[in-house]
Amino acid sequence: MVVDDDAFSRAIAERGLGKLGFTECHVAADGQQGVRILARLERAPDLILCDIFMPNKDGIEFLDELATRRYPGQVVLITGGDGLMLDVAHQLATAGGLQVVAKLTKPLDLDLLANALGLSYAI
Known about the structure:
Layout: E1 2-3, H1 7-19, E2 27-28, H2 31-40, E3 47-51, H3 59-68, E4 74-79, H4 83-95, E5 99-105, H5 110-117
Parallel strand pairs: 1-2, 1-3, 3-4, 4-5
């Protein structure tokens, strides 16, 4: 799942996940939409890429929802903004019991994502 308010970033992330072998990808334009999508799914996604700065329900609020729901999968935090907030989001997410496997900046670097997930891909 990709939760990001920037349509271009969502598309890049979705395409990148496909290259890494993920066959199904849900996308949300903000944390509020992400929560609605999660509520509809029979099974939680294995991986969520979450932007930190979004309108309506931002990444911090979305991560809090994931912690409350005891989300069992992996989380990758992404931002095009402040690296300090990325660190704060990481600390809050791990304190909430979430499995954060990477903190990445935009534009998303597929090599860094693959490395964080222990995957390889063919260009």
